[in-house]
Automatic annotation (TrEMBL):
It comes from Marinobacter mobilis. PANTHER family: HTH-TYPE TRANSCRIPTIONAL REPRESSOR FABR. The keyword Transcription regulation applies. This is Transcriptional regulator, TetR family. Residues 1-55 form the HTH tetR-type domain. Residues 18-37 bind DNA. Pfam families: TetR_C_46 (PF21943), TetR_N (PF00440). GO terms for molecular function: DNA binding.
Length: 191
């Protein structure tokens, strides 16, 4: 899996990898690849799963930091950007294959996104209860937030450190706007 990730870049996607290249990078014979995966796409799906699990684990750790530091949006965005810096090729894989030709890839990535949305919606409901500020629709707010973060993540991949800081500031403001907008709609009874 690491060998495949090492070959991915801004200019090279998963679809251009060959089994021989991955095996050579991993230091194994091409036939040994089949002890681990039945085909290259199975390796890609395992990478998508690993990427999603790793990000969800990081976001769970962020929740613990939020409990100590208080700023949910700021802590979450900072955590996501850390993930992005350390897993750029994995995130690129998810971005490219999200709309790629492979239905199994698209389905796997949509499943990972669905996990993020569900967990975030649950967090938002708890936040709304704790703060006494109901949301018009926690699920819809979570979907908007995840979509925004995913899209800003794509921009941040190749950004300079200064550009990334600007993106983080912008993303935090946009997420706050979504949250406050939902609270306002609920307050006005415009669900």
């Amino acid at each position: 899996m690491d060998a495949a990730l090492a070959q991915l870049s801004a200019d090279r996607g998963f679809g251009s990898l060959s089994l021989r290249e991955v095996a050579r990078e991993a230091g194994i014979a091409p036939t040994s690849f089949y002890r681990h995966f039945s085909e290259l796409d199975e390796l890609g799906l395992a990478l998508v799963d690993e990427g999603g699990v790793a990000l969800r684990q990081l976001m769970r750790q962020a929740r613990k930091r939020i409990a100590r530091n208080g700023s949910a949006i700021s802590t979450s965005v900072d955590t996501f950007m850390e993930y992005l810096a350390n897993n750029a090729n994995l995130f690129r894989l998810m971005l490219r294959e999200r709309t790629g030709v492979s239905k199994p890839f698209r389905t796997a990535i949509q499943t990972e996104i669905e996990h993020f949305v569900t967990e975030l919606a649950d967090d938002l409901r708890r936040f709304a209860e704790d703060e006494g500020k109901p949301l018009s629709d926690a699920r819809l707010v979570a979907e908007a937030m995840v979509t925004l973060v995913f899209n800003q993540g794509a921009e941040a991949l190749d950004a300079t450190p200064k550009e990334r800081e600007i993106l983080k500031t912008k993303l935090k403001a946009e997420l706050r706007m979504i949250l406050v907008g939902s609270q306002t709609l609920s307050h006005l009874g415009l669900n």
